[in-house]
Amino acid sequence: QSALTQPASVSGSPGQSITISCTGTSSDVGGYNYVSWYQHHPGKAPKLMIYDVNNRPSGVSNRFSGSKSGNTASLTISGLQAEDEADYYCGSYTTSNTMVFGVGTKVSVL
Amino acid sequence: QVQLVESGGGVVQPGTSLRLSCAASGFTFSTYAMQWVRQAPGKGLEWVAVVWNDGTNKYYADSVKGRFTISRDNSKNTLSLQMNSLRAEDTAVYYCARDGYSYGRGTDYWGQGTLVTVSS
Q1: DSSP letters of A37-89?
Q2: 3-class SS at B81?
Q3: Minimum distance, in Å, between the CA of residue B60 and any CA atom of chain A
Q4: How many angstroms separate the CA atoms of B69 and B53, rounded?
Q5: Looking at chain A, which residue has its C-alpha nearest residue B115?
Q6: A100 touches chain B (CB under 8 A)
């Protein structure tokens, strides 16, 4: 159950697009279309942004989109806004019937 | 609206036990798998355990297997986590969370968390 690999930090200017990668193995990310993404502001409850690789829950801005290729999933934030500054985590179902999260990526808006 | 409220956190000594509870409201509790996720100070999210909607299946992270037990009472809309043989590395904020789309696809509601500190 090793954590999924994410870049420690990603930054961008307002209005730009950024992409966060999430790399796992064929036993998790690559094995199922069950990748999710979470936004976490410190001290608050995490918020689901993407489920099933590329689906947005009701109420989540369409500036957030997800994709997957092989063992790597990605979250793209377009039209970056100050309120997007937060920690982002990917999550995946695994062949062991468990879940695994990524190590987290700090997004900074310059 | 969906609400998940954790309780039971506190400061305990290594080797002792603690029981966390999560009171759920605003949805049909018995139709959703429920999870515990934790975050140690300065660290990322770590999945802990899941229990299916009817309580028949339970799965655990290797780091807690054999020490923690997840359970639920659908008649009381309550999720629990019994934590035994606690270690310093179990110190974390523990979140109760709902699997919104069936297990593994996405955790759509989270509580505010309860802090567990294991220290002598």
Answers
A1: EEEE-TTS--EEEEBTTTBPPTT--TTEEEEEETTEEEEEE-S--GGG-EEEE
A2: strand
A3: 7
A4: 16
A5: A43
A6: yes
Q: Do B95 and A46 touch (CB under 8 A)?
A: yes
Tens digit of each residue's pLDDT (9 = 90 or more) over A30-53: 999 999 999 999 889 999 999 999
Determine contact: A66 vs chain B, CB below 8 A.
Answer: no
Q: Inspect the interface and report whether the beta carbons of A101 and B37 lie closer than 8 Å.
A: yes
Interface contact B45-A38, CB threshold 8 A:
yes
The amino acid that residue A81 corresponds to is Q
Q: Report how far residue A24's alpha carbon sits from residue A1's, in angstroms, rounded to the nearest whole number.
A: 10
Distance CA(A37)–CA(B32), nearest Å, equals 19
Tokens for B22? 């999560």
Provide the residue-wise pLDDT of chain A in tens; the chain has 110 residues.
799 999 999 999 999 999 999 999 999 999 999 999 999 998 899 999 999 999 999 999 999 999 999 999 999 999 999 999 999 999 999 999 999 999 999 999 99
Which residue reads 């956190």 in tokens?
B9
Quick: pLDDT tens for B81-107.
999 999 999 999 999 999 988 888 999
Q: Length of chain B, please? A: 120
Closest CA to B39 of B48, B26, B30, B29: B48
- A47-53: list long-range contacts, CB under 8 Å, 24+ apart: A47/B110, A48/B100, A48/B106, A48/B107, A48/B108, A49/A75, A49/A88, A50/A75, A50/B106, A51/B100, A51/B101, A51/B105, A51/B106, A51/B108, A52/B101, A52/B105, A52/B106
**Angle ∠(A28,A29,A32) on CA atoms, nearest 5:** 80
